[in-house]
Design a protein that fits this description.
148 residues, mainly alpha, 0% strand
Amino acid sequence: MLNVNEGHNQELMEHCQTLKEYAQYVAKVRKYTSLGELSLEEAVECAVEECIKEGILAEFLIQNRAEVISMSIFEYNKDEEEKKLRKAEFEAGREAGIEEGREEGRIELLKQLIQRKLSKGKSIDEIAEELEESVTVIQNLIGECEIK
């Protein structure tokens, strides 16, 4: 996959003027939206105006102004929603990973405690009561690590 954002793949951009100008247009939209002072529609309109003045995709933008603005807003909203979704999914995965790690740590601690208590001659019933776990849980953990 090629990065066609402004400032990347210069050789490709030099061979395809339209792609280069499109990357410049997208950079201007991003610039105006990142300022936070304009609505998305205003930011897109400013980017279109600036590009026309600078001769960037000028003919195309003049002929297709309304469609360009409409599609740019649609695509930008779609991109923003996808970013939000990825961020939410990342956070959910991170939280699940943290929870899984905590549970694994808890199980490892239980196994260590069970092993110590067995080595001191305690019964499974005593261990279960002291660790506030069921006898079944203690037996399963003993079976998992073959504690004797």
